[in-house]
Every structure is written in C-alpha cells, then in structure tokens.
Write a structure and sequence with these properties.
Length: about 550
C-alpha cells in the first residue's frame, strides 16, 4: 500500500482526507487524554498508535479499500478509533443506529453491503436474531468492557483488543482521492424504510473546519477551544456525533466518552473529568437538569449545544439557572450535519438574560461557506424580514449528494441545485434562521399556519411544565386545530388545569407573539411523551394516539 513516488519538481496535490486531521493533535498535544468511563485512559500518542493497529487488524480480516465496516457501540474510545482508521484505509464506516428495530437494522446492513461488523456485547442478541439473513457480512469482531467473552450463538472471529494487540503499530495509510466515500448512516424513519446518506473525506474535512471556525473563532458564549474538555451526549452512530469528535481531535482537547447513557455516570464524568463542552438533544439535557443531583452540584463550567429538535425557552432558562451556557444548533442527517449555530453577535453580549435567550434558542446563523435562503411555493426567494415564511433550502460544501441507491428520493431532496430539507422557516434582518416547523408538522387552521415549535416553546415557559408537544388534529370547521400534550413537573401534578395553560398562553396573544387562533382548545396531561430513536418528539406516534 505504498504511496505514489514523486519526481523532482513535481508538486503535491494536497487531498482533503481524514488522515490529515491527525497531523496537528499528535504534534500540538500528544499527551492530552482520551477517557472512556472509568475503564480506559490514554494519550493522543497512544490514540494514533491504536488507529494504526485497528487498520492493520482490519486488513488482516480481509478489509480493503471500498469495503464497509459496520459498528454497533456506545460512545467510546473504540468508536473514535473507528471514525479515523476505517475511512483512512479507504473503507467505509457504517455507524449503526442500535435503537432501530431488528428488521430495520437488517435492511440497513444488507443495503450498505457491510463486510465486517464490530459489535458491543450488549447488542449480540440483536445480531443473533438477524445473522442468517445478512447477505454480505463475513466477519464479526467483539467489543467488550469485560475480560471474558460472553456466551453467544454467533461465530466471533476475534475480540477488539486482542485484534489490536496482534496488529502492527504502524500502517501506511494511502493518499486517497478526497472524494472517496468515508461514512454512511441511515435516517431514522418512523414510517417506511430508512434512507442512507453518505459523505466523502472532503466533505468531512470541510465540515470539521467550518464547525471549528463557528464554535471557536467568533466572539460569543460557549466557545470551543483547545483548553476545553469534550464529552459527547449525542450517540456516535447519529450523524458523526454532529462531527464534533473530528473537531475535538483536530483541536487536541481532552476527550471523555461516557459509554451507555446513565444519568449518575454522566454527572460523575462531567464533574470528575471537569467536562466543559458537550452537545445533545433536548431530551438529554432535560433528563439532566431535572435530576435532583443537578441542583446540588456546580455546572457553571459546562457549555452545551442543543440540536436534533428545537430548544424550548423554558428548558433553556432551566439550564441557565444551573449555570450552564446553553445554545442551539441545527442540522440534518443529510447535512453532515451542522449548518447553523445560534451564536450571539458582539453587540448582543451585553443584553439582559431574557433577551439573550430569545437569540440563543433560534435555529441560528449559517456556518462559514453555508448559503441558506427561504423560498415560496414557486421557488422565489423571500426577504430577510423576520416574518416572510417559506421552505428553507441550502447549499453547503458538505451536504450529501444523494440518498444511497435511491434516485427517486434524491430528486425530492435536490431541486434546482438546492437541498430541500422540508423545514418551514424565516430569516430575520440580522441573518438568523428560525425554523418554525417541519412542513409535515405545521398546523393548518382556517387557512392559517400555526407553528407547533412556537407553541411548545411558549408552553414550556409555564412554571409547572416539564415537557410539551403540539400536534394538529382534524376539525370539521377549521381543518385542523392544535392539541397540547403536556408532562408536568412532579410537584405540579394534579395542580395544573387546561384553563391554567390557556390563560398563560393568552398573554403571548396580548404581546403579539401568538395569534388568537393559535391557542389550543385541548390539553392532555401525560407521564411521558413518545420519542424517536434519537430522542426527538415522535409526532407520528402522537398523531396515532390522538387522531
């Protein structure tokens, strides 16, 4: 696998490939730590060697350029090593969403044409169930935190650490074409089959650079710098954990990987390892800030980006009350994923807290190199006036070029050279994008649109509300009417009525922030709101329950 031999005077065409991201951290901070729970702790120098050993071990198993390696694991140092070693050797990393149904997992593995599976022992029963229906898988590598191999019906070819110990500490990673496919994963479909998206080395490097610029270089709150301590709270199977592990590695920050998400373990790691920077969906931050332990500890050193779903104002203020610097970001599986971050502009830094929060929960400002606009039904661009609402479309140098082996769905995604993500939004005079709803979730009543996200954010500000979800239900007169599904905080259960919430929302009508027809007629109090496999509110399931 030797590289090209260059002749005197011949220039080097520098490819934007993932292996180039490892040059800086190994020089800059070789002794910074990578931590996995309370089980593993090593330096960047060791990380680099382990990446080499992993590639060497996979090659011994028969993996070559163009093959696909599927990974089932919690957030771990092993996953980080796979983020680099697999694409760097020219193979494709398929990150498996282990929250899918077994049937969906089977479909995605056959569709992606997986050759080797690296699987955590917790997920062996799932693989046992579908193994005889897998059409391309040749080898299985066991990932385990224990010293002994678990009982299983599967033919395990080798254990991960055993494979690394028997592999070479050096590997000649090739200078690939930067457009070589590096990763693939599947959208979390609540109906129909999951759709595969994929990204090249060039796209991942550009995403890393643009995200690093946005979260670290602009004067704002929550900046991500080389002195930070990073811990993801987004599954690494989901959209490259928002690409932040690549950014963290480029910056050579200390990285902490929590494994299985357990509130007490997460809090212990945040405090014990002095974690300063994380990202997660609203469900996770809600779980943490409502934990009784959170009120007894100091979280004022912690910065958190919220994505995957809108950040309700009530939840943002609850986090800020604990000292957490919190702000929103936005992306999709199809966008690699980050395309906006809700940075404060310099002239906003001295605003009062309530005014800042209104900006920090916005969808955000486009990342460097990102072009975004809002268009009407005819494709005409709408003005940036903070009220002209249409479909959000975008051009960014790292958007997926197509759905994998699905040309029909690709035609729906890309039209007139712009990616159509299916979001309804407006752009204000300052250039902030604000998504008001998914096109499929917007509530249409009497010919007018009501934003379910606005309703959820406003309702979340009621003192007794823990979570809220809004959907439209059929109405003979108006076409649709909004219904609010509400989870109350434990101390408020049985003490809050539908009329209390109606009266609370009326003040937003008086302030001009909600139309009068936007106040829901019906409120349902529940113990829990159904979520998707990546922690978003499952509105399809809610519609099944209440329509």
């Amino acid at each position: 696998m030797a590289g090209k031999v260059y002749q005197p005077g011949e220039s080097y065409r520098y490819p934007l490939i993932i292996k180039k991201l490892l040059i800086t951290p190994v020089i800059y901070s070789p002794n910074k730590e990578i931590v996995y729970r309370d089980k593993v702790r090593f330096t960047y120098r060791t990380l680099y060697e382990r990446i080499n050993r992993l590639a060497s071990g996979l090659e011994k198993l028969g993996i070559k350029q163009g093959d696909t390696v599927c990974v089932f694991d919690y957030d771990s140092n092993r996953y980080l090593e796979c983020y680099f070693a697999v694409p760097m050797m020219g193979a494709v990393l398929h990150t498996m969403n282990w929250r899918l149904s077994p049937e969906q997992m089977l479909y995605t593995m056959n569709h992606a044409e997986d050759d080797v599976v690296l699987i955590n022992s917790d997920f062996l029963p799932i693989l046992e169930e579908i193994r005889d229906k897998l059409t391309t898988v040749k080898k299985i590598v066991l990932l385990t935190d224990e010293d002994k191999k678990p009982a299983t019906k599967l033919n395990i070819d080798i254990e991960y650490e055993e494979m690394l110990r028997g592999a070479s500490p050096t590997y000649d990673f090739p200078d690939l074409d930067e457009n070589t496919k590096a990763t693939t994963f599947y959208t979390t479909a609540t109906t129909g089959l999951p759709k595969g998206v994929y990204f090249s080395h060039r796209q991942l490097v550009l995403h890393t650079m643009c995200t690093a610029l946005m979260v670290g270089s602009y004067e704002s709150i929550g900046r991500f710098r080389s002195r930070d301590v990073y811990m993801p709270l987004t599954p690494m199977f989901h959209a490259h954990a928002w690409g932040i592990p690549y950014v963290a590695t480029l910056l050579a920050v200390k990285q902490v990987y929590p494994g299985k998400y357990e509130p007490e373990v997460l809090l212990r790691l945040i405090l014990g390892e002095k974690v300063t920077f994380s990202h997660c969906v609203p469900t996770i931050i809600h779980m943490l800030v409502t934990s009784p332990v959170a009120k007894k500890v100091d979280l004022s050193h912690w910065k958190v980006i919220i994505g995957g779903a809108a950040l309700p104002k009530g939840l943002a203020k609850a986090a800020m009350d604990l000292g957490i610097e919190i702000y929103a970001g936005f992306g999709m599986s199809e966008t690699c994923p980050v395309v906006t971050i809700a940075n404060l502009k310099e002239h906003m830094l001295d605003w009062d807290v309530d005014k800042k929060v209104d900006v920090l929960i916005k969808t955000g400002l486009p990342l460097p190199l990102a072009e975004m606009k809002v268009v009407d039904a005819q494709g005409n661009e709408l003005p940036h006036d903070g009220k002209s609402t249409g479909e959000l479309v975008m051009r960014v140098p790292y958007l997926t070029e197509s759905y994998f082996k699905d040309p029909e769905k690709t035609k729906e995604l890309w039209r007139d050279g712009w990616l159509h993500g299916g979001d309804v939004a407006y752009i204000d005079e300052e250039g902030y994008v604000q998504i008001t709803d998914r096109m499929k979730d917007v509530i249409k009543t009497g010919g007018e649109w009501i934003s379910s996200l606005d309703l959820e954010s406003l309702t979340s500000q009621f003192a007794g509300v823990s979570e809220a979800a809004a959907i439209g239900i059929p109405d003979e007169k108006w076409g649709e009417r909004p219904i609010m599904v509400v989870v109350l905080k434990p101390e408020f259960k049985g003490k809050v009525s539908a009329d209390d919430l109606k009266q609370f929302l009326k003040k937003f009508v008086d302030e001009g922030r909600l139309p009068k027809y936007g106040i829901p007629d019906k409120y349902v109090f529940v113990d829990a709101i159904p979520k998707t496999s990546v922690g978003k509110i499952n509105k399809i399931e809610l519609r099944k329950m209440y329509i």
